[in-house]
Amino acid sequence: MALRLRGIISISLLAGLALSACTEPAPKLPTAAQVEPTLKSHVDLTIKNAIGKNVTVTESGGKDIPCGNGRYKRAYAVKADSPWPSDPDVIATALIGALQYAGKYRLVSASDDLTQREAVNAQYHTRITLSSPSKGKMMVRGETECLPSH
Do 43 and 75 contact (CB within 8 A), yes or no? Predict the structure, then answer.
């Protein structure tokens, strides 16, 4: 009888633990404002690592951009001159290499002309677009995912 009771108790405890593991809440997401400093750092480091000259901030960030459902994203962008008068596809490729020193990003898309690439980092909830609109020019634009407001 004691052996049977132990078996029932063991099964009950295991079932309870299994059920509690299934109902664990999802990890809390950061806000766009909390992610923005990391985003800005990655964008700035990418331009720095690509040896961008005459860097200009084209989108300063600091503003919540509504996504709907109480979620917001933030954006930050810079443009710069390349120290080499290279073609846009070469500059875009150089920006990919420079981004890898800023953070662990995964390339997710490329345009047909290879002058624009997009990369994401799931850990930091960020997306960065690397592009070269013309010979000798580079642009890096980052945005956070749509995240809760608080």
Answer: no
